[in-house]
Amino acid sequence: MERLDTGNHAKSALVVQHDPEAMTRVSLNARESGRDVALVPTMGALHDGHLALVERAMKSNSHVIVSIFVNPLQFGAGEDLDKYPQTLEADLDMLRRAGVDSVFAPSPSGMYPDGPRTRVTPGPLGGELCGATRPVLFGGMLTVVAKLFQITRPTVAYFGEKDYQQLILIEQMVRDLNFGLRIVGVPTVREPDGLAMSSRNRYLDPRERATAVALPTALHAGARAGDAGAEAVLRAARAILDAHDDIRVEYLELRDPELGPAPASGPARLLVAAHLGGTRLIDNVPVTLK
Fold this sequence. Notes:
Belongs to the pantothenate synthetase family. 36% of the residues lie in helices and 22% in strands. It has 290 residues and is of the alpha/beta class. The strands form 2 sheets. It has a 7-stranded mixed sheet with strand order 1-2-5-4-3-6-7, with helices on both faces. Strands 8-9-10 form a 3-stranded antiparallel sheet. The N and C termini lie far apart (55 Å).
């Protein structure tokens, strides 16, 4: 266990735990003292999007735990596990300044001491959208999130809407497996030009970064076409994406808010995944169909 001085002596120092059992003891002690426990799971390489989750958690007057773990189970062969940015010291400094109570930063061997023998299966939705091209993603993600819930014993957990399919699958798992905690989705945080904040944005070269703004531009154009119906939404978004030869669209889909088939009218979600060079980006926006 490490203790990092927060510089704010009204609160105790930031506690960094690497051992799962020690982390559970910290969480149970907080709950026994009458506090709720709020979990913000991350893979590190923190940015303002992560801090928005932390800020929401801090407002709950809970014992706030941020987990930092690059989960190997959710990366397939040829994906970016080996190059995924790991910036633990910078992340800890950011969380210290934010006033977080605890950080859980385990090793892969600490999380999977006997290997990943038991896994969570995401069901049919796990093979759609992002899961169609990344078949191990959501099973790996749900498995580690389930373990994080068991280790940190939260009463509430915060996830960003930028990873919308992830959010829906976590809500599904919590309901189906009776985890007994509340899931809060936090709206996507964007750069000034509209690009959704992501740890993978740092992979983009300057030209790719300039082009990437076409993704949110397309989504918002689609959302504005909601009055004209589902086909108009997709046409408006597709027209902007098709104007960029260096954007390779993996999918552009309109779904209902639970990621079932798009409704004829009412709330919906417009989602995109696309590649710029070697970088895969995702984004989504709410849409109202009339």
